[in-house]
Amino acid sequence: MKPNSTVLLGSLNTEFVTVAYMVERYCKDHHLAKGADKNTQAEPQWQSALNLCAECSELLAYAETRLDRCPYGEQKPACNTCPIHCYKPEPKDQMRQVMRYSGPRMLLQHPLLAFRHLWLEKQAVPELNKQMIPNRKKRKM
Ligand SMILES: [Zn+2]
Description:
Layout: H1 10-30, H2 54-69, H3 89-109, H4 111-122, H5 135-138
Helix pairs in contact: 1-2, 1-3, 3-4
Bound molecules: zinc ion.
Zinc ion (ZN) is lined by residues 27, 31, 36, 52-53, 55-56.
Protein name: Nitrous oxide-stimulated promoter family protein
């Protein structure tokens, strides 16, 4: 089962699924492998498609909220090229560790998602404009 977000639309959900697999891979090798308990909460729905400890579930929920509120909406650039720094320092640091570890490993496990992301990193960051609608606003329209 794919860890789809039930709130994110289109490319933002693809982005979420990518980051979900990356957090899962990191958690598997760093937390669950060392005896951390798997989070067995049923909500949100993506939880049941993933093996994550409580800490990583929280990090991924945070990522989902940031994607939901991203002012670029579905035109969102790759996070590491984005001029807006929307993560708080602590989750930012956690996420950086996840990316560093899981990034190269994604090429083998989820090559399509990995290549999509690498392609996105090569694109110019779009200028924010009024046609861009944050997901949170869009899903309430
Ligand atoms: Zn974890």
